[in-house]
Amino acid sequence: RDLLTPTILRSYDDEDIGYAEGKVTTTRYGNYPHTTLIGQPWGSQIRASKVDTGTRGRKGQHEGRGQKRKRGGSSSSPGDGSLVAARGGASMQQDEAATQVQQLKTAVPADTGFCHLLPPTPETWTYGLPHRTQVVYTPDYSYILQRLRATPGTNIIEAGAGSGSFTHAAARAVYNGDPLKEREEKVESSATPPQPTGTGEGTGRVWSFEFHDQRVQKLQTEIQEHGLQDIVTVTHRDVYEDGFSIQHPTLQPSINASAIFLDLPAPWLALKHLTRDSPSSPLNPSTSIHLCTFSPCIEQVQRTVSTLRTLGWLDIEMVELSAKRIEVRRDRVGLQEEGLRGVNATPATVNEAIARLREVEGRDRLYHDLMTNKSKNQDDIPSTPQTEGYISKHQRLQQIRDAQSDRKIYKEGRLVHRSESEMKTHTSYLLFAILPRSWTEEDEKRAQREVEEFGSGGLGDEREKPVSKRQMKREAKVQAGGNKDLELEMKWRLDGDGEE
């Protein structure tokens, strides 16, 4: 999580921080002006830039305070490269933003530091989002969405949005087209505007509910910035008391959900609103409803299970997930790996070990010879030790590095995997249940008629199908159980019946 920094790329300083390079994202690995990020392909490695943090403005810059003053002059003006905050309406903001883009200082690459430009995904957002509550991480919400049967076009109810981690993952799971673009195309192709069909025109939606007002405002801002406002609807409500029914301006009925996720302290209090009894029920009447609750304590699970059984939910099951990372890589062992990174530079065979021992012994012998010559006659000591077949460690490492360019390292070594030594700690218990589709008396009568028609047309003919005499003799032999006399008597009776 510390390695991911979410940001919205801007060509101008929309936050009015005051950097001369425009909007800058600051991390522990350097400063990155957005002018160096815009237009780069995803996955690119971007070098950090030298940013003068002393020239940035302070709070109140738009009021004339916090700007750095030059010696013998007045405060900095828009002409010297600093950025000015918008002071008027939308038109003034756009004009000043365009002026700021022209006045931005060219970023200078730094000596160290780099980052990778990654596309926005629910996984990266989960690890980089601002934590307002407990977060549903990727191992949990991927399994939850699979059990909820979340597919493109599904309507999902989420109660307890919190930080919005599950909200973004669910929006990707139910997305099956741009609703706004589809509506615009229908309006352009027809003279009359399209009428709502009651199912969201085939597009999936996430209906998110949150009790805390400030969290709702922040989540709505994030959803708007991420372009998910046509897929996600965030509502400020106490679902314990007010339920889940809302009136949408274009969709009637409003929700028509087939999947429910409850991340609440007391989910059993909200289950009374998840029925098909009332005319304003948020549930889809023609399909089964899949439910999941996210509870950290087993006592919460027990009370929820009791309520689910009372309300007629079936297939109740509790699951606890424990995630463990598995590292898969190639393990390269041998003396030819000496000096390289991420390898095991130890002898791989007996021959390599013997060769290394001989090399060490030869180096020791050379050292003792030099010390002996030094004690006898210092003038005869060679300036550089020269022996037949001797290679210094520095020369050996240099030969290994030179030969590395010709090797196919990605094919060498043994493919191994290593898992984490410790399991991740407990997050929450996942409780799943299914509410069958609504079943009326008419549905029951229609099903009974189909069963009767199927039984009289198919099964009845098979029961009345005649049995051959050979098959009857086989059955008589089995019934006799090895008694030859009884077997002959039964066969004789069968033959006699045939003659008659």
Low-confidence stretches: 57-70, 72-93, 191-201, 383-387, 458-463
The SSE string, one letter per element, is: EEEHEHHEHHEHEHEEHEEHHEEHHH
Number of continuous helical runs: 13
Instruction: Give a short account of the largest sheet.
Output: 7 strands, mixed
Gross morphology is flat
Strand order, main sheet: write it out. 7-6-5-8-9-13-10
Class from secondary-structure proportions:
alpha/beta
Number of strands: 13
Beta fraction of the residues? 15-25%
**Radius of gyration from the CA trace?**
38 Å
Helix content: 25-40%
Calculate the mean pLDDT score and round it: 77
Distance between the termini: 91 Å
Q: Could you explain how this protein is built, in words?
A:
There is one protein chain. This protein is of the alpha/beta class and 500 residues long. Helices cover 34% and strands 15% of the residues. It is built from 13 helices and 13 strands. The protein has helices at 90-103, 122-128, 138-147, 165-174, 179-189, 213-225, 239-242, 298-310, 350-376, 393-404, 441-463, 469-480, 484-499; strands spanning 24-27, 30-33, 45-50, 108-116, 155-159, 205-210, 232-236, 259-262, 289-295, 314-320, 326-331, 414-419, 429-435. The strands form 4 sheets. Strands 7-6-5-8-9-13-10 form a 7-stranded mixed β-sheet, sandwiched between helices. The protein has a two-stranded antiparallel ribbon with strand order 1-2. Strand 6, helix 6 (213-225) and strand 7 form a beta-alpha-beta unit. The longest helix is centred in the last third of the chain and has 27 residues, at 350-376. The chain is flat, with a radius of gyration of 38 Å. The protein starts with 23 loop residues before the first strand and ends with a helix.
